[in-house]
Design brief:
Mean pLDDT: 81
Strand content: 5-15%
Number of strands: 4
Shape: elongated
Low-confidence stretches: none
Structural class: alpha+beta
Order of helices and strands: HEEEHEHHH
Helix content: 40-55%
Length: about 170
């Protein structure tokens, strides 16, 4: 059995993610790549195959500073959000590049959200969606607690009609 490296495993995971995640002109893809020393991010329109904006810790203002830490990733997240706003981009699809959503990747994505990307509420987290669904179900249960559903009412009316027919026949 051949040994597979972490990089090979990450590439396979990234391939599975890329089958599902695609950037468009309205909502481009924010792709993250991290190395040991630096972190890179691009906003890509996959339909036109064009990079719309990019940022990395390998750029001028970050030269000489450590780029492989959470603080640098957060700074890059803010920077890419500012560059996206300059281009008129406010919605993106996040592509974590096969990396776990933790540490530098999480810091970068969270900083970009705080700086303005996906602000208008269309990118709800799964937990928020589940909570909203639970609240709606609870409200429906409360409303139906005192009221009978339409089907229950129809069944009762049919049973009453049968009882009335039997009572009318006996007389």
């Amino acid at each position: 059995m051949a040994n597979t490296s972490r990089a090979d495993i990450r590439r396979k995971i990234h391939g599975r993610i890329r089958k599902k995640v695609q950037g468009t002109s309205e909502r481009p893809r924010l792709a993250v790549f991290r190395s040991v020393k630096h972190i890179y991010v691009q906003i890509i329109d996959d339909v036109k195959s064009v990079t719309l904006a990019a940022a990395s810790t390998n750029e001028g203002e970050f030269k000489g500073k450590p780029g492989g830490n959470i603080e640098a990733a957060a700074a890059i997240g803010k920077l890419i959000a500012e560059r996206a706003a300059e281009k008129g981009i406010d919605q993106v699809v996040y592509d974590r590049g096969g990396y776990v959503y933790h540490g530098r990747v999480k810091s970068l994505i969270d900083a970009s959200r705080e700086a303005g990307l996906n602000k208008n509420g269309t990118d709800d987290s799964k937990a928020e969606k589940i909570n909203k669904a639970d609240n709606v179900e609870d409200e429906l249960k409360i409303e139906q607690k005192g009221n009978k559903t339409v089907q229950e009412k129809e069944v009762e009316e049919a049973a009453d009609a049968q009882m009335n027919e039997k009572a009318g026949e006996e007389e």
